[in-house]
Design brief:
By secondary structure, the chain is mainly beta. The protein contains one helix and nine strands.
Length: about 130
């Protein structure tokens, strides 16, 4: 079992090419004994964004605070506190902060990337 306050977990820069003003925390993952999913918390600065990218696995996202848009297949969808987003595998996507405060969201991904050619660290773009 793991019980900690999220701020005790280091906030890391997202270093994947195309990211701007984007940081992430690994809240729960395989190192914690979670065999199926990794839970991450993203923080995107005003005017910042995640990389525009795609990969073979899905994302489940829950917006905690802030406002922005998620771009999927060239379409823009507004998001804010309480928004839920499902990003299917293979779909190009990007999260952009359009507000004046940090955009914070939880993002869950499957650990089943084990069978793929990419690790969670590579997929997340963090060190």
């Amino acid at each position: 079992m793991k019980v900690v306050h999220f701020e005790e977990i280091p906030l890391q820069d997202v270093t994947m090419e195309g990211a701007q003003g984007c940081k992430m925390r690994y809240l729960i993952g395989e190192p914690d004994g979670a065999p199926n999913f990794t839970m991450r918390q993203f923080e995107v600065a005003p005017g910042g964004h995640t990389p525009h990218h795609q990969h073979h696995y899905e994302h489940e996202v829950f917006v905690l605070s802030g406002h922005g848009i998620v771009i999927q297949n060239g379409r823009e969808f507004p998001i804010g506190p309480g928004s839920v987003v499902f990003v299917p595998g293979g779909v190009p996507h990007q999260f952009r902060n359009t507000g004046h405060e940090p955009l914070r969201f939880l993002c869950l991904i499957p650990n089943a990337m084990r069978g793929g050619a990419v690790s969670c660290v590579v997929a997340c773009g963090c060190d």
